[in-house]
Prior knowledge:
Structural class: mainly alpha
Order of helices and strands: HHHHHHHHHHHHHHHHHH
Shape: globular
Number of strands: 0
Mean pLDDT: 87
Helix content: over 70%
Amino acid sequence: MSDQGxxxxxxxxxxxxxxxxxxxxxxxxxxxxxxxxxxxxxATGVGAGDLVATLIAGSRxxxxxxxxxxxxxxxxxxxxxxxxxxxxATGSTILAGWRSLGRxxxxxxxxxxxxxxxxxxxxxxxxxALPLTALFPGLSLRAWAIIAGLFGFVFVWFNKYETFExxxxxxxxTMFVIMVGLAILVAPSLPDLARxxxxxxxxxxxxxxxxxxxxxxxxxxxxxxxxxxxAKGWRGTPWLPMMRVDNSTAYIVTGIFxxxxxxxxxxxxxxxxIALQDSDQGLLGLSGVLEERFGATIATLFLIGFAATSxxxxxxxxxxxxxxxxxxxxxxxxxxxxxxxxxNAYRFYxxxxxxxxxxxxxxxxxxxLVIIYGAFGALFMPFLAITLLxxxxxxxxxxxxxxxxxxxxTLAGSAILFIVLAVQQVxxxxx
Length: 431
């Protein structure tokens, strides 16, 4: 391991922050009390874009792609579990692991995270503004977008991980109850649901299928999971069972949530032949359909669920990616102290996500940036899957923390899937 990696190992292992710091891992019967980081990573990963993708898949193909949504959750469980397992087993971070594979990984991540933050910041603020503008039409979309960004900035600047986790759990509870309630309300057909698990590919559905598997439930944020387990105070291999329960529970909740949205798309839109707009605006279209069918109260509740989904993604990225960036910055400087909440680099990235992207709210997105962002974004998931295969099979990890057969098969399968998606996305961008 590089010197930096060794230093990271020393620093992070001796950094007892977080509510569970200094405690022995709980017994199986008490694990539910400690759930948290997984819920945070899953809520961050499911945003307005995922709601639209799932709704449109449901509206176009009915239940036929249900299996793809379920498979997508399994892929995310493997990626976030692999990333957190590396953190727990080495006392280091995934970034220190990447550095040990070559300095180029640090440069790749650095360029990507700067461009990603600039574009994602504007996307997250706009997505959060949509339901808020529909609920409170007194202010413009741009004004709500700026308020959303400032709220994320102030909240994350002044609050530690414990408060952040509590708020994320409340948002997840809100979005889960509302979206699952909607799915029950539209009365799904159980035989049709069962048929949706039969791995069929309707004509013209291949790209939607790949998108559902690859997109729903987070991209770069799956790699931030390890930072949240550290912020929670989980250290060392004894915490592996707790982390696995936490991660699996969160993605099962995500899976139910995604299936609920697919049901709403299939029952409300597919059966009525209604086409939604293929962007976040499409969710406002669904609100109109709901109002027509079930009345204003249900439509308003849906908008509250949509807002909770968008706000949880925004807060999760503002907090988790700032942690990620600060770790990268201090490793590049060769100094390991400071890659934590409240450090200068953490606050710099928090400001970077909030203020420069506001320029994009006043202009059309610059074409070149969108292409670079798309290409880098498409390459990140194969990079994550392949590096997890390399790192988690290495002798750097104690034997009990290395990949098993199931992990290796899932990660290898997802690497192939993400390479196919990357080629498709880059070809589309060039086209």
